[in-house]
Every structure is written in structure tokens, then in C-alpha cells.
């Protein structure tokens, strides 16, 4: 559930921190949301799957009967035998109804949703079973067959974040925020100061609607704590558990504007943890440290990455603005999914001096800007082509996940992406996206890539036949 920085070396000069384990990132890869359809898919009986809520879901197919797994359901889809990926679906406060069927030759699986149809080549086998993996979010799922004679059901074997409902054709995700947990590498020491900067981190270009950093402290070495209190690392308990139950205690939960690149300072006096944010929040927590006890910092992440700087004296408290880490600082090598993997973030040794050069003041936040035509290498206008083919596009354009590829290419803003995903039916989604594409030039290469990735190549000639470069 957590990306772990790869380098294990200890660094104490600021310029070397960028290659050390100073950044941890949330990932929903092992969210526990794996479930199967126990009814085999056949060419005569297509299956209708309805998703309702907000979140990210991966759809796939396997030749392996889910009953083979019993109580050993794989953590991730890549551990499912004979698995083939079908679709990534992202929904936001809406329903998505999709039809899944085999073609008559048993060589393709066809999925239809959002006004589009997708064909996927598959290897021949005796039976095919649909796989659904909820990566994150609150998602209800329901199955329907072509008639009521033969029931369709979800398998009783599923991940820990899936709950079967009274209706065997319906399931739901238990925890909408499957979080990641990691620890600071060393015990807190008197006058140690930490500066934490957290920023939103999405899954396949989609950032959860809410994201947070929950800070706790424990009085036990992290690896021993994990062994003794393993239940606290089960995702159902990550956010719903009592956050101050004596075994670990809450310091503060940072959300929204406090997780958008603004630093937060922590200072430990030997018995008290003091927190101060750049937004003005201040808090002091008495850890009631007894003689011989040590205090460790635990971090619970959801939808974010966290970068840590450390120092002594007054360099980092109140903490200065911390420049954004370059992309290589966020390279992660492993997942924290075992006792060994729950190793802490290796950070500078508190006892050594840290040379810190305060960066220039952070400029005031600017309002979001639309992508500028001058930054587009191959700009084209689609307004005329859209107007000429408006009714056809309104019926046939598959707006999602097409819009996600546009966002990745910096063709639309995050606000525009959210506006598209917030629509509740397919026609409104297509209309909003068409309206956005009509208002300014876009990159021809970026749009063509998005069309190809979403298997809508047939729209390339339609959109670019009369475009003005």
C-alpha cells in the first residue's frame, strides 16, 4: 500500500537527500479490493456490471476458477493466473453500466460502456471469469444476466476490502480510503526538527476527491510494532480505528490546503511534540514519555506523497518553504506489504549537523491557468470539425478515459477534468468535453494519442479533416 524509497544510505547534506529515502508515496495497487464473478462468462449470456459511487476500478478476465483461491486470494491482479486486462474505469458520483460478453468465436471479449465498445483478444480456455479490482473509492457493484433463469453471482472469495451483501449479485467496498502506513527511520530525539511537505498523488491521472496525511506516534520500534499490532495495518482499520487507543496516538490530521505543497514543521522536546504549519496551525502533544522510552513517528498517507527534511537548532522550525523534489526523488522500488517491507523512511541522522540554505520565499499561489497555445508545438482548432459533426460526436464520442489522456498531456486543466468527471450521465459528459475542445487550440499529437489509446481511431479523420492549424 505504500511506495518505499529505494536508497538505504544515510545522508546529512541537503543536496544528497534527493537520492536518499526521504519521500514516501501512497499507492492503491494493493487495496484489497479484488473480487471475481463466480458465474462463467459465455457467448450466449452477456453480463451486465453496474458500478455506482466514486473511485477507480480495473476490469479483467481470467481462465482460473476463483474457487481455486479460497482463503488465499491474490493481493494484486498481476498474481492472478491466466489474467488479461480489459479496462480501467473511473467514476465520480455516478453510475456506470457496462455490458461484458464473449464473441461467437471465443477469441475476443467485448466491453461496452459510456457509449463506446472495446474489443480485447484473449487466449482460448475452457471457462472465462470476470475480475473486478477496486483500487480506491466507495464503489457499489451489481451483476445482472440476460434473464432470471440462471443467476449470476460474485464469488465468495475476495479481497479484505470487499463485502458481500445479502444479494449474492451485489458487493461493496468496505473502506473508501485504503491508506498507506510508514515510519520515520529513527526515534525522535530532543530538539529534532522535521519539515514535511505533502502533495496530492493520483492513480492513473485521477486524484481522490479527498486526501490526507495522518500523523501518529508510537513507543515501540516500527518493525516490532508491526509484528505485535498487525491488525492496525489491515486496511479496514486504517481510518476507522480509534486513532488514540494507547498503542498509537494521533498527533494531527492534515487535509486539503495543508496537503498541497505547504510545509509543516514538527519539533520534539523530549516529551512534547510541537506541530506548526505554514497556514498558522499550531499544536502541542504531550507524549507522557517514561524513563527509557522512545517515541517514533508514524505516517498514514491517502492520495498524497510526503517529503521530509530534518535538522537541528532553528533551521527548520518554523519550517521554510521546501522546493518540490525532482521526479527522480519519487522513484520507489518496493511496496510495504510485509514485515520487511514496512521498513521506515531512511532520513538524515539527527545527531549530525545539517547545512540548510533557506530557499527564496514561495510566490503567492496563482489562479489555475488554461493551457496556452504558445506552448503547444502542433496546435489545431477543432471548432469547425466539431460543429460539422456535432450530433455524431454527441452520440459516439467516448469521453472517459479520453479526457484523462488530455489531462496527462496538459491539454486541459484539473478543474476541467473534474467538471467532466462530475457529470452524471454519458450525454452530459460528452457535451462538456466537446464544449472544452471547441474553445481553444489543442495539440494534434496529444488528441490523436488519446483517441488511439481509447480505441477511437475512427474519429481522427472526422476531427482533423477541416482543422485550422
UniProtKB/TrEMBL annotation:
Q: Which Pfam families match?
A: CARD (PF00619)
Coiled-coil ranges per the record? none
Stretches for region Disordered: 350-372
Which SUPFAM superfamilies is this protein grouped with? DEATH domain
For this protein, the record's PROSITE patterns field holds: CARD (PS50209)
Q: Which residues form the CARD domain?
A: 383-466
**One of this protein's GO BP terms?**
regulation of apoptotic process
Where along the chain is composition biased (Pro residues)?
A: 358-371
The molecule here is called CARD domain-containing protein
- Give the organism the record lists: Dreissena polymorpha (Zebra mussel)
Amino acid at each position: 500500500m505504500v511506495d518505499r524509497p529505494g536508497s538505504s544510505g544515510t545522508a546529512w547534506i541537503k543536496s544528497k537527500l534527493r537520492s536518499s529515502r526521504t519521500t514516501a508515496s501512497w499507492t492503491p495497487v494493493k487495496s484489497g479490493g479484488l473480487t471475481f464473478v463466480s458465474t462463467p462468462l459465455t457467448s450466449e449470456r452477456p453480463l451486465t456490471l453496474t458500478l455506482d459511487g466514486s473511485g477507480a476500478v480495473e476490469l479483467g478476465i481470467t481462465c482460473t476458477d476463483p474457487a481455486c483461491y479460497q482463503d488465499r486470494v491474490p493481493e494484486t491482479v498481476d498474481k492472478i493466473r491466466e489474467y488479461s486486462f480489459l479496462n480501467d474505469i473511473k467514476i465520480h458520483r455516478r453510475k456506470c453500466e457496462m455490458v461484458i460478453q464473449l464473441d461467437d468465436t471465443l477469441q475476443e471479449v467485448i466491453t461496452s460502456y459510456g457509449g463506446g465498445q472495446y474489443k480485447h483478444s484473449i487466449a482460448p480456455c475452457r471457462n472465462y471469469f470476470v475480475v473486478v479490482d477496486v483500487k480506491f473509492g466507495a464503489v457499489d457493484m451489481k451483476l445482472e444476466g440476460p434473464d432470471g433463469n440462471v443467476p449470476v453471482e460474485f464469488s465468495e472469495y475476495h479481497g479484505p476490502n470487499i463485502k458481500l451483501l445479502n444479494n449474492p449479485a451485489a458487493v461493496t467496498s468496505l473502506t473508501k480510503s485504503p491508506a498507506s502506513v510508514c515510519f520515520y527511520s529513527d526515534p525522535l530525539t530532543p530538539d529534532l526538527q522535521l519539515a514535511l511537505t505533502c502533495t496530492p498523488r493520483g492513480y492513473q491521472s485521477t486524484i481522490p476527491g479527498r486526501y490526507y496525511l495522518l500523523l501518529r506516534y508510537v513507543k515501540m520500534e516500527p518493525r516490532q510494532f508491526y509484528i505485535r499490532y498487525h491488525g492496525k495495518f489491515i486496511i479496514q482499520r486504517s481510518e476507522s480505528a480509534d486513532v488514540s487507543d494507547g498503542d498509537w496516538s494521533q498527533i494531527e490530521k492534515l487535509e486539503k490546503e495543508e496537503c498541497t505543497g505547504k510545509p509543516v514543521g514538527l519539533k520534539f522536546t523530549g516529551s512534547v511534540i510541537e506541530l506548526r504549519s505554514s497556514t498558522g496551525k499550531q499544536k502541542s502533544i504531550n507524549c507522557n514519555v517514561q524513563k527509557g522510552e522512545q517515541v517514533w513517528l508514524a505516517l498514514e498517507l491517502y492520495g498524497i506523497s510526503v517529503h521530509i527534511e530534518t535538522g537541528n537548532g532553528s533551521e527548520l522550525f518554523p519550517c521554510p518553504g521546501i522546493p518540490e523534489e525532482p521526479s527522480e526523488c519519487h522513484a520507489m522500488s518496493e511496496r510495504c506489504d510485509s514485515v520487511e517491507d514496512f521498513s521506515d523512511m531512511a532520513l538524515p541522522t539527527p545527531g549530525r549537523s545539517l547545512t540548510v540554505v533557506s530557499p527564496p520565499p514561495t510566490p503567492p499561489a496563482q489562479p489555475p491557468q488554461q493551457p496556452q497555445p504558445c506552448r503547444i508545438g502542433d496546435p489545431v482548432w477543432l471548432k469547425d470539425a466539431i460543429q460539422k459533426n456535432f450530433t455524431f460526436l454527441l452520440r459516439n464520442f467516448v469521453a472517459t478515459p479520453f479526457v484523462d489522456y488530455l489531462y496527462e498531456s496538459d491539454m486541459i486543466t484539473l478543474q476541467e477534468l473534474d467538471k467532466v468527471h462530475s457529470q452524471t450521465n454519458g450525454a452530459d459528459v460528452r457535451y462538456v468535453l466537446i464544449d472544452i475542445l471547441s474553445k481553444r487550440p489543442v495539440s494534434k499529437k496529444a488528441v490523436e494519442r488519446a483517441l488511439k489509446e481509447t480505441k477511437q481511431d475512427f474519429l481522427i479523420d472526422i476531427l482533423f479533416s477541416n482543422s485550422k492549424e
